[in-house]
């Protein structure tokens, strides 16, 4: 199914598009952040931009629209545990808290500086103690939270920044941390269907590196999510932006 370059809004998808095999091995250097010397990761705003620019840049890529769609598919409920992996400055975690204040939202990110921004943002929104902010890597969730500890796992604009082995490791960790029947909702750059979107996506590739981002542009995420053991994987939304199209994927852990 093709997303027309003339269509500015989201388009719902009823099935997963044809994607390449997730067995392809790609390699890419990661940028190392001195604030977290034990592990390497790409900062939220990319390799070249300072952390403080993340929110202004995100606002340019129709952030309110796709974050709202992600929250809609999460449909948070009172008492459930929702973990936001790679929470960045906390925008998605705060939105989920606003939608359902009685849900327990946990925001996890490896960058202590961006978590400081998230905490300040939460305080400014009157939610200073409502969200549990934790420092940690996405592939270490079981150690950070415990297996089967979350009802819903979300992540936004994280996987396109990761090498293929790390994409797999994060998705496997998300599967482990979810309870049987738990929901996964991801928003990230997915299959770039048109020449316009592929051209626009070059800005992201400049910031985050082609080796890590190209598998996303080729449409690999649904295949990787399925490989990680999730059921009912589908691309639920596609939003065209000035930096390429962002997809919302939904899936469930079997059981429950």
Write the layout of secondary structure elements.
Blueprint (H helix, E strand, L loop, with lengths): L53 H6 L3 H12 L6 E5 L5 H9 L4 E6 L2 H13 L6 E5 L5 H5 L4 E7 L7 H14 E12 L5 H6 L1 H7 L1 H8 L3 H7 L2 E12 L2 E10 L3
Parallel strand pairs: 1-2, 1-4, 2-3, 4-5
Antiparallel strand pairs: 5-7, 6-7
Helix pairs in contact: 2-3, 8-9
Describe it.
With 256 residues, the protein is an alpha/beta fold. Helices cover 34% and strands 22% of the residues. It contains ten helices and seven strands. It has helices spanning 54-59, 63-74, 91-99, 112-124, 141-145, 164-177, 195-200, 202-208, 210-217, 221-227, and strands at residues 81-85, 104-109, 131-135, 150-156, 178-189, 230-241, 244-253. The chain has a seven-stranded mixed sheet, sandwiched between helices. Helix 2 crosses helix 3 and helix 8 (202-208) packs antiparallel against helix 9 (210-217). The chain is globular and about 45 Å long.
